[in-house]
Amino acid sequence: MTELLRAAGVSKRFGGLLAVDRVSLAMAPGAIHAVIGPNGAGKTTLFNCLTSFTPPSAGEIWLQGARIDGLRPDLVAARGIARTYQNIRLFPDLTALENIMVGLGVRRPETLLGALLATPAHRATVAAVEARARALLLDLGLGGRGDRLARHLSYGDQRRLEIARALSVQPVLLLLDEPAAGMNPVESHAMMELIARIRDEHGVGILLIEHQMRVVMGISEQIHVLDHGVCIAAGTPAQIRADPAVIAAYLGARAAKHGMDALEKRA
């Protein structure tokens, strides 16, 4: 079976700062992996490299057997990688429906002439895009909110809308940057269930950055731990839970003896 994603020796340097240092990881189709680490560990920079938002300084990135490092971000998206951001990046003055339709336009391009003349083909495309967008709103628990401006949605609904927009491009790999950030335990549990359902129903692999250890341990099949840009550990939740180097990276060497339970209580 062809791997969904393979990153080999990916590095990113900003002047004298090596933000990501020879990180390697591999994912099978339909897998859920997590990237964790202290603030400043290089997690979001790694996501930026995987999407060509910032091109890596070294290393190779492969998606479904095809090399994608060096491609423009729009071409990486067209190949099948979509993402959300740590800080929500919606179009605040567009409706929820319009936010998703923007994403769907990537998969259903239209000609300028067709739009100007409102040709039958253009009208059919718009109708199909709107129908798909409404289906995604319903699927993500946003039914009935399509006509609301994005900035008027609750924080949790904005998170869901951003995921819906990412799904609109029909990715094979979805990168989620702190999807449960700012959520209470009930909301975090609901987000865990949503992520699992997205994987199962949309057949998409998911790589997430998350600081809430309950979420990470509850949903991830493999976890990759970064510290100062270096992958210091990788394995199953049970393996990561038992790794003193991981606890030391978060809480310091003296706290490592308390184990992952101390970190989960802190999160």
TrEMBL record:
GO terms for biological process: D-alanine transmembrane transport; L-alanine transport; L-isoleucine import across plasma membrane; L-valine import across plasma membrane. SMART domains: AAA. InterPro entries: AAA+_ATPase, ABC_AA/LPS_Transport, ABC_transporter-like_ATP-bd, ABC_transporter-like_CS, BCA_ABC_TP_C, P-loop_NTPase. GO terms for molecular function: ATP binding; ATP hydrolysis activity; L-isoleucine transmembrane transporter activity; L-phenylalanine transmembrane transporter activity; L-valine transmembrane transporter activity. Keywords: ATP-binding, Nucleotide-binding, Transport. Residues 5-253 form the ABC transporter domain. Signal peptide: none annotated. It holds the Pfam family BCA_ABC_TP_C. One of its GO terms (cellular component) is plasma membrane. CDD domains: ABC_Mj1267_LivG_branched (cd03219). This is ABC transporter domain-containing protein. It comes from Teichococcus deserti.
